[in-house]
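Need tokens for this chain, all 250 residues.
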Amino acid sequence: MMALQGLYLTLVLLSLSGHAISGAAAWASGLSTFVVEAGGGALLGLVCGFLLSRFVTFIDDPLIETTITIISAYGVYLLADFLHVSGILTLIVATLIFGSYGRRIGMSEHTREAVDNFWGIAAFIANALLFLLVGAELNPLRYFSSVAAYSLLFPAAVAVVAVLLARLAMVLMLRFFTHLLGGSILFSWRFVIYWSGLRGALSLALVLALPIEIPVRDILLFSTYMVVLFTLLVQGLSLRFILKRLPSVS
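Here are the structure tokens for all 250 residues:
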């Protein structure tokens, strides 16, 4: 999805710079490039994940194996970028393979504990730094410095509703595919999956990365901020209350 967003962001920037592209040409170019980048990224991730998983079977040292996970995280992304495929998809697929198959066949219990501890701390520090950067960059009060700024509230409300409806659609699709496979999910669990769709630092980081030239950047930034605020304050704080009162019935 992020690869597709990046492609259409490129098309938007091209149109802003005077390189007009028709709707059909934009869709055709975007989808074809997406297939190449996403497919190539997934394939490269499979290969890298498998090779890394086999490589760690020859090593039995927690420090070295932890270092390999660090180098791999950056190396796989840089390799994908060099080959002009999706670095995000490559890294995700490689991590899934390495974190399941490689973890099972190539890491001892002591190594798994060391790797989990390191990446747990790294993830905590990264999230903390990201929120600090977001706080330094984003000042919600400046959006209300004029009367016209209150027009941002409507698109923000639309964004919140759209996110809730999209999450609902995904949960309904999950129920449909589960029934096709002969299984079932309790209604209470479906509601928990729906209501626990919280948004956080990653959403803000992506929208803050948008170029300044985007005409509706302020609307996108404010709407994303309100979506994150709604999911964390409304959905997040009410989740414990809901969990205690949901019946365990289908």
